[in-house]
Amino acid sequence: MQDIQHSSIPAAALRRPRRNGFAKRGWIALGVALAVVFSLAGGFGVYANTLPTVVTLNVQDGEKDVRTDAQLVFRFSRPVALTTVESAMTVSPATEGTLRAVVGQTEFQWSSTTFLKELTTYTVTVNSISDLGRHPVKASQWFFTTTIQPRVLSVTVPGGVALADGAEIDPATQLQINFNDPMDQASVSVALGTKLAKLKWSADNRSATIPTSGIPSGPLELQVAAGARDQTGHPMVGAFSLKTGIYYHDREHTTALKFPALIQIPNDVFARDQNGLQGASMVFEYVAEGGITRLTAIYQNAPNLVGPMRSSRFISLKIARHYKGLLFQSGESQATRSRAAGDPVPQFFDTTGYTFRTGVRVAPDNLMISGAAVRRAESLFGISAFTIPKARPSLAGGAAIKKIAVPDHYSVYSYDGTYGTYLKTEESHLYRDASTKQPLRIEMLIILHTQVYLLDVGDGHGAHIHDYDLDSSGRVDIYYKGHKFAGTWSSAGAHKPLAFKLAGGQALSLPPGLVWIDVTT
């Protein structure tokens, strides 16, 4: 029998090959798994879509020491219309505020129009509503209590009147700074300008007075530095500042006018002291005749009494045209009347029922007019409304000069740093306003240099008429707050106000108060 020989081929090679069934079964399993996942996800999505929309607040329910300037932020889990939130939200105690969307239609911010009340429990409610997808938003409510937050309530002057930012005060006015809470004195630092102020505290530590004596006239800023605390340690949020200014103000009663009243006022020795000069917006002084000066006082607001009144001059007509007003005078010479006819100027003369002669002055320097009569006289004329532009100038540099002489007018002006004004003496006589009994205080002095003509025409009293060029341009010397500035004047037309500029070309604004202009060579 022949031996059976075993094959040398490995046994594995003799087996029947297996089909790759794993891949097929794996894909089937994966598909089943994904189907389950998507089924679950879809089920969860369906479930989540049935949940109400949630609203949260940035303030925790029951939170304490919430700042009085806090803003409430509402966050919704789905978009909601702003108008819907506005109608559903309430704050109690009732507080005015505004709501605005800050992130799409899911986040809204409510801000109170004023500070919230201190140490007060507030209730914030959002009533049941629906979002944009018509999902319900369950009603929600939160409670919180505000803290005491020290702050400056006001800065007041004597009499309790609060100063607004930009308001002005008189020289040496005592200020009082008022807090809403007793303050830790050592932590409160107040500066007036660049210097620390000395505070005198009230017994309850809620207010402190601040003297301003010795502070020069001009802009002033009051600042309370950050870091101030109340007596329980609560910090004041940030710093506080108030912009004000120290300036002289004429506090007498005046009558407002629709357009300027230009009143001719004599300046001879028998006319001084005149009534109503302090209330003028501008005064032009010029030589009339025989070395005697005359004044054209321009009023935007007329004092109770102005005078005496005398006649006009050629220059008066020019000033009246430039400043678009009504020229008040006792009368005028034939020469002046003829000159006025060439370019008519509205004029008002001595008229019964408007002007009157006073017994306390000697004629002819005794013709007077009241502020009310000035306004009544203006009502007789159809002159357009006009206001002389006034604004505090911001001047830098300049030469420090405290005394100024104007030889042509026998005048000397001296600067009073306490009031920030100039005092006027003429022939050694210190000018006062006869109504206020106080020295005349000039806010700005301008010496206007121009061509002067001595005309071969009589004024009716035997003297030759002076005429002045106010319709071209020239140089000026400007004196303000104890300093001298060089500049120019110019006329853009006979019926437009004179324009003043500094030497560098910067337009010069005329300050509120009395501006005195000496017209000379």
CATH superfamily of the largest domain: YerB-like
Helical content (DSSP H or I, runs of 4+): 10-25%
Q: How far apart lie the N and C ends? A: 161 Å
Dominant shape: elongated
Query: By helix and strand content, what is the structural category?
Result: mainly beta
Question: Can you tell me the number of structural domains?
Answer: 3
| Highest CATH level, the class of the largest domain | Alpha Beta
Q: What is the oligomer described by this structure?
A: single chain
Per DSSP, what share of the residues sits in E-state strands of 2 or more residues?
A: 35-45%
Largest sheet: 11 strands, mixed
CATH architecture grouping of the largest domain: 3-Layer(bba) Sandwich
